[in-house]
């Protein structure tokens, strides 16, 4: 191959990789080019070369693909947040559907799976209810907030991310003015000095409640009343707190929360169920799509009110509480104790008495309960992290022999692997839906219904 690093090549983008990069060939050599889409003819500079493929940087779009769109965000290329802003939303959904289909076929061996539904967003912007903006200084020493440039920690000034709510910009402006007027220094990662590290903002989409939490490298916020006076004026403001994080690492939040004004939590609803959200609680970031996904899981579970349901990897019990409304009894299992504490409180607050929760690894708790207590299930729901279900769990699920299994997955590769195991003898894939929880990004959620075969 006659190319070398820094060469400029012309190529036609004919495919897209799992991370949304365009893929094309220059004289038979495969190049991955970020920010390009299928159908683009581009000029790109080779940045990194491996034996069989390399990475190139988009220099110029020579002929745009018919599916290329103007990104809404001016920082789309530099920011590490979005990968697909250059692609029309319709094609983003197609990309996600094909990704799931491809994995089910390649890894699971499922040849003719019909994905019956791709659940997209009507408005694929401003869907995030949570944002964490780093605070720092630009080259001129001015205090800024925005986003980390892809794979780095240099901050690109941007207060108006199109994935977040519009009120974010106003909140950030108030914080910056307060910092400048009161000589509050932003945190400097290199020296470990300065005070304000991040601004965390969360919004209850159904309640309209807003939370602002400043993450501090210190135990107090000087002249805090000047900040709270400003922020209180914003309609919906419900909670103003600070979080203490003096550690020199990349974890955003520390353990301690101090209330400055209002409550130390906000509330929101998924369906009819109310959740209390503190700065530290886990809560799905796209509430609109979460509700659609869980409604799909509920539909697939086919509950009539008589069923015993196990919800494994239950987190704060969102799916469990959703299902409890239609089931006889729901049992949730989750590894994080704080999440289970939230799940129990959420059940109580909503008057849901038929949901019980256990802390532990799903692959320990379920086999133990099954072997020692002989627990049973009519329906099992799993929503594991990206690595998928543990083998020991799948074995127990097969032994328990529920009528239906609903598999909610954030990684279609491990989903395909696990479905292959579950379908080897007993189950068959009945229904598959793909839900777009992260428009403009590459991640995709899948919901699958497995039905026990009639022998
Ligand atoms: N359904 C949940 C979110 C599931 S995300 C909700 O809607 O809130 C996956 C969850 O699995 C996380 O909460 C994670 O803490 C948990 N988890 C990871 N490994 C686990 C294991 N081995 N056993 C049980 N839970 C686990």
UniProtKB/TrEMBL annotation:
Its EC number is 2.1.1.190. The lineage of its organism: Bacteria, Bacillati, Bacillota, Clostridia, Lachnospirales. It comes from Blautia hansenii (Ruminococcus hansenii). Residues 2-60 form the TRAM domain. The active site is at residue 410. This is 23S rRNA (Uracil(1939)-C(5))-methyltransferase RlmD. It holds the Pfam family tRNA_U5-meth_tr. Keywords: Methyltransferase, S-adenosyl-L-methionine, Transferase. S-adenosyl-L-methionine binds at residues 284, 313, 334, 383.
């Amino acid at each position: 191959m006659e190319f070398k690093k820094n060469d400029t090549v012309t190529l036609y983008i004919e495919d897209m990789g799992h991370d949304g990069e365009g893929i094309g060939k220059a004289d038979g050599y495969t190049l991955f080019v970020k920010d390009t889409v299928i159908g683009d003819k581009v000029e790109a500079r080779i940045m990194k070369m491996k034996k069989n493929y390399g990475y190139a940087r988009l220099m110029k779009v020579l002929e745009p693909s018919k599916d290329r769109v103007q990104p809404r965000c001016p920082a789309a290329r530099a920011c590490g947040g979005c990968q697909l802003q250059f692609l029309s939303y319709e094609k983003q959904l197609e990309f996600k559907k094909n990704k799931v289909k491809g994995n089910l076929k390649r890894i699971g061996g499922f040849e003719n799976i019909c994905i019956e539904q791709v659940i997209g967003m009507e408005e694929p912007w401003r869907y995030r209810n949570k944002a964490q903006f780093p605070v720092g200084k630009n080259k001129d020493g001015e205090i800024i907030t925005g986003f980390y440039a892809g794979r780095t920690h240099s901050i690109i000034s941007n207060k108006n991310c199109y994935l977040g709510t519009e009120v974010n910009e106003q909140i950030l402006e108030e914080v910056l003015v307060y910092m400048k007027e009161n000589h509050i220094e932003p945190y400097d990662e290199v020296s470990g000095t300065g005070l304000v590290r991040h601004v965390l903002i969360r919004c209850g989409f159904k309640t309209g409640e807003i939370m602002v939490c400043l993450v501090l490298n210190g135990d107090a916020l000087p002249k805090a009343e000047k900040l709270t006076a400003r922020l209180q004026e914003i309609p919906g403001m419900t909670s103003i707190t600070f979080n203490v994080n003096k550690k020199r690492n990349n974890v955003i939040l520390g353990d301690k929360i101090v209330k400055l004004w209002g409550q130390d939590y906000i509330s929101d609803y998924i369906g009819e169920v109310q959740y209390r959200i503190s700065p530290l609680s886990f809560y799905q970031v796209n509430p609109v799509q979460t509700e659609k996904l869980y409604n799909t899981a509920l539909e697939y579970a086919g509950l009539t009110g008589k069923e015993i349901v196990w919800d494994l990897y239950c987190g704060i019990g969102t799916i469990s509480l959703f299902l409890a409304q239609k089931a006889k009894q729901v049992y949730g299992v989750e590894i994080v104790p704080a999440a289970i504490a939230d799940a129990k409180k959420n059940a109580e607050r909503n008057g849901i008495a038929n949901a019980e929760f256990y802390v532990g690894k799903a692959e320990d708790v379920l086999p133990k309960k099954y072997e020692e207590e002989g627990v049973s299930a009519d329906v099992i729901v799993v929503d594991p992290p990206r690595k998928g279900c543990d083998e020991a769990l799948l074995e127990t699920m097969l032994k328990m022999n529920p009528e239906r299994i609903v598999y909610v997955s954030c990684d279609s590769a491990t989903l395909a692997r696990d479905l292959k195991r579950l379908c080897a003898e007993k189950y068959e894939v009945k229904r598959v839906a793909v839900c777009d929880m992260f428009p403009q990004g590459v991640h995709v959620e899948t919901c699958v219904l497995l039905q026990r075969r009639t022998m």
